[in-house]
Design a protein that fits this description.
There is one protein chain. This protein has a single domain, classed as Na+/H+ antiporter like fold. It is 69% helix and 5% strand. It is built from 18 helices and three strands. It has a three-stranded antiparallel sheet, with no helix packed on it. Helix 2 packs across helix 12 and helix 4 packs antiparallel against helix 5. The radius of gyration is 23 Å and the shape is globular. The relative contact order is 0.18.
Length: 417
Amino acid sequence: MELLNLFITSLIPVVKVLLVIAVGLFLATERIDLLGANARHHLNNLVFYVFFPALIGCSLADTITIENLATLWFMPVNIFISCIIGSALGWILVKITRTPRHLKGLVIACSSAANLGNMLLIILPAICEQSSSPFGDSSTCSAYGEAYASLSLAIQAIYVWSILYFIMRTSANCEVEEIKANDCTIIVKTSGQTTEILSETCAEPLLTSNGCSGDNIYQVDLPQIRDEGNEKISTFGKIKQCFMTVIRSKSLKMIFAPSTIAAIVGFIVGIVSPIRNALVGDSAPVHVIYSSIELIGEAGIPSITLIVGANLLKGLKGSGVGASLIVGIIVIRNILLPVCGIVVVKTANYLGVVDSDSFYQFTLLLQYAIPPAMNIGTISQMLGTGESEFSVLMLWNYVVAAFSLTLWTAFYMWLVT
């Protein structure tokens, strides 16, 4: 009977997520067209630059203190471990299914990166607010749930926009197409909207190394140092040019996205007592500033959930993704990773590196059972490849997650309590 009550408690927040996703899907249909491509683009910018940074900053400032930092250090480690396990399983799936080169990065990304911030920001507070929740006082539980979800979102954003971005960009550059005409072979590389002829020959086609070989995973463009005449550039000058190239790179700008900056600011406000006392709390002198930012941040959760539903519309139209690839990612995300999460968290608890708080352990476990991150779709749009494939993978993963996430949530609550 206890497990049944936990199942009902875990079902309600998942149903809430699915209902809002269904509304977003409905609003994106051609008949309604309130969340068409342009509307999604503008709403996504609002979420990315305004709503989520406000929500993350306020959540962390309200709950993170110098005292509880010692108990949260394992959360970034746990996310990193889950990404490593997911990437390894995704690489195995790529080898088994013989995935096309330009989709290998997409498969690894879907297997490793979870939708931690968006889903956890809805699920954790919703579970806390249930009358049958096993995690104590609802207000305290919800506050910590938002902080855990905000921290997870910031950490995941760094991983997605650094490691996964490079992997997917390298994979997208390997989209090679062979065109045969008049007994000749023309090898063409397509990347986004550009097309480049790599070789054109009637004998043996040549494919030069363009970062597409399996041995060359990462490609770094270093600045060219010119030495004209007797002009000599010192070692310090070379280091400075390399440093400026890295600083101006698009990838670094993505790592320090608004949500990441907001997380840093939230940490500073929460840790520095004078700033915290001035902003946070009903009796704070400038509490109105904090309240206004918090009010803006409350629009982030429903907005991003509507966008998730609208983005799933492409998946209904189908694409060339094989059934084996879809099933493989579903198995990784809904069976293998949640089981690995139990092993990791329980081992960490046995070694004494994880706090005994049941809600904290539950959050660590739940990070392994969340569907793939929607940021992967943003990267696919930027690179101009894999968008329809990603939509199909997301559609089936979220359909299966409606059942698997409920079951794992109920089991995790039973396990930690």
